[in-house]
């Protein structure tokens, strides 16, 4: 059984990141934007793991970086959902077009 080349993983990561950018720019729902941001962070974490795989033997810096990215994504999701809930309670909508909180 032949191993999958790293270029296939990088192409998959590029597709994930592109889908995340497309989702973040086109979604009108705040939850959809948060999901797209999570998708982009997962693509970056995949890149770190692949580059760590090609690194010299014994180097686990890519896996450590991917772990911190996943922890950052979890913290960002919790904070983002808290903000979305606060906006929903005050505005009764989570559509990004309806919220203009910087304009009082």
Structure description:
By secondary structure, this protein is mostly helical. It is about 75% helix and about 0% strand. The chain has helices at about 5-25, 30-55, 60-90. Helix 2 runs antiparallel to helix 3. The termini are far apart. The model has no long low-confidence stretch (mean pLDDT about 85).
Write the layout of secondary structure elements.
Elements lengths: L5 H21 L3 H24 L7 H31 L13
Helix pairs in contact: 1-2, 2-3
Relevant terms:
104 residues, Helix Hairpins, mainly alpha
What is the CATH domain class? Mainly Alpha
The number of strands is: 0
End-to-end C-alpha gap? 62 Å
The class by helix and strand makeup works out as mainly alpha
Beta strand %: under 5%
Count helical runs.
3
Proper CATH architecture: Orthogonal Bundle
Task: State the shape.
Answer: elongated
**Count of distinct structural domains:** 1
- Return the string of H and E elements: HHH
CATH topology: Helix Hairpins
> What is the helical fraction, as a range of percent?
over 70%
Summarize the model shown.
By secondary structure, this protein is mainly alpha-helical. It has helices at residues 6-26, 30-53, 61-91.
